[in-house]
């Protein structure tokens, strides 16, 4: 067990590769991305990071194994807990075939894998408003399971704004998506699902994380020649201003607008980065509880051999210092690694250590501890009762003792993230 300080990673994934459509931008072959499966023995000998990455990606079909591997990397990196962001990738392909598995079972298996390591994993439910029965799933996950947040991925094909009355996808089928469970989800139902989800999050004070960068995975029918630019309007951070303000929500922009060293998309990343900073400043003055955060899971560094990326690393960490020295931004910038995608280039320990080396104690306290805890659970830092009840029941069922780590405070029957 690493030293217990309450150090968090707000951006990590336990991906179910079985639900990835064949035409998704991250192509799959045998359960792992095709480009990983084609790595040669020489590649693996020369690059130990690729070897570990392939092992982790190959385990993505079994959540108990992926959580075990994740804990290994967390312990080496001295990370106490991680936010696990689930993504509903099946919605990216309107013509996706039956994947021969039950979606609800996937959600339960993620919860069980997280409960196997109490207070080490805090799962977010991947909400796609086009999925039939998604509202019932949402309520179940925050009543009967241990989910503590909601993950949105608009780039997979939906506009996150709940008040639009006339928007259609260019190919004419945006409002029509047939899932294996049967039935069709139409435009008005999508808007209704979004409204009810935001209302539910407001009532229960649930945090939201949204993918916000030009990279990542996209709806498969977008124009490949346009480099997915036609989907960017759904991911634009300005879409969430009114959502956060109207519903009084805590929303985090994953990737803080995108990779600033991306040659092709860096102008968009800089534009969104600036927009996010302005939105954070504005939200800081709102009278309600709505606040905007951003994590820097850029996934760009290889601090060992690549001089170009080492130079870019210095630029990014200087930006982090600037944010953490700013009176307002210093309260809302969070550490995230994008595990396991980052471990193709470096280990989780190398990734976080590059920041530890360059940030002073005060900056580290904000970046790794205080800001993440406040984003997840608000100023009270109280862990939701559904999480506590689920992990207690799971430990009892498995005849395990519930061990309370040092970064959790038990007070009057409540559990607080210190």
From the N-terminal CA to the C-terminal CA, the straight-line distance is: 17 Å
**From the 3D coordinates, which CATH architecture would you assign?**
Alpha-Beta Barrel
How many domains make up the coordinates? 1
- The chain-level mean pLDDT equals 81
Note the beta-strand portion.
Answer: 5-15%
Oligomerization category of the chains in this entry: single chain
Strands of the widest sheet, in order across it, are 1-4-5-6-9-10-11-12
- Top CATH class: Alpha Beta
Please report the number of helical segments: 14
The whole-angstrom Rg is 20 Å
Give the ordered list of helices and strands: EEEHHHHEHEHEEEHEHHEHEHEHHHEE
CATH superfamily: Metal-dependent hydrolases
Q: What are the low-pLDDT stretches, counting only 5+ consecutive residues below 50?
A: 25-35, 165-184
Written description of the protein model:
This protein is an alpha/beta fold and 418 residues long. It has a single domain (8-417), classed as Metal-dependent hydrolases (TIM Barrel). It has 14 helices and 14 strands. A hairpin with a 5-residue loop joins strand 7 (177-178) and strand 8 (184-185). The two termini are 17 Å apart.
